[in-house]
Amino acid sequence: MQALCKELQQRATELKNTTVSSVYFGGGTPSLLTSEDLNLIFKTIETYYKIAPSAEITLEANPDDLKNSKIKMLSETQINRLSIGVQSFFEEDLQLMNRAHNANEAVESLKIARQYFDNISIDLMYGMPQMSVERWRENLKVALDLGIKHMSCYALTVEPKTALEHFIKTSKHPPMNDALAASHFQVLIEDTQKAGLTHYEVCSFGTPEYFSQHNTSYWLGKPYLGVGPSAHSFDGKKRSWNVSNNTTYIKTLAKNQLPLTEEILTPENRFNEYLMTGLRTMWGVSLRNIDKIYGSEFKTQLLENAQKHLNSKMLILENDVLKTTNKGKFLCDGIASDLFIL
Predict the structure, then answer these.
(1) Rounded CA separation 212/176 (Å)
(2) What burial letters (b/e) apply to 156-167, b meaning 16+ CB within 10 Å?
(3) CA pair distance 172, 165, nearest whole angstrom
(4) What does the pLDDT look like over 100-129, one tens digit per residue?
(5) 46 and 85 in contact (C-beta within 8 Å)?
């Protein structure tokens, strides 16, 4: 905690002329922080940074961490938004994902959280081979019936060297089914739309007043400062990332040095990132911005690369803005990489 606050102090000049619109406690298990820990961090932030009165301040947590006393404590700090890793409201899914909480804890944590917080987001997973379309639809119904106004929904992927990969290779678990995941995604779009939620980013659904300000900043290419082990930062032209080892992180700051590595992004890097993030959102990629920032050659190359996806109705061009269609959203990362300039 002392090293974290020291890094906040040393890097304050990076946001010297900026009013901070969001603070996000994530990556790991920030719900383990005590009220003293949180107050120490907030005191440091308020001392060295200018925070907007309406700033969105989010903390990630898992349902098993959110007992009544913990939620009440969090509500008495500056935190005004919770992001809760529910993943599923069904026991079989939670066991497959090796989650620490059960289905009942998922529901109860949300019921308690709603007594203290208005702004709540939940994470849900789909695309598991054993999850029927009907069960996925029921997952969404439970969330919407609980009054959740923002959801982040992700397709399950098999990461290398994980238990899931081992189970699939040894036939103890069925392989991933892309067609089923695509069906789940279509149900997700349809059911959230019926409930009045806007599909504003590939994985994000919410009413406009509950859009994630923090994540939206990432997608729109705004600068951000990340502190703590493994944290990443971006200033518009340069990216940096902290060492992941806790001990090295602490020792480096004790020497009054920053534990980070920097990379200057080339115009091609920045252009490709703009495509990757922009095509994921309902705001799309502005050809005028590309022409203005990167030049006409980038714009011409983009239109040439995009033509086959426009022909297949994966992309649409409206008012000089390139967007993914509903058909293209499920494959947008692959489409974006196909448009990269290398």
Answers:
(1) 29
(2) beeeeeeebeee
(3) 10
(4) 888 999 999 999 999 999 999 999 999 988
(5) no
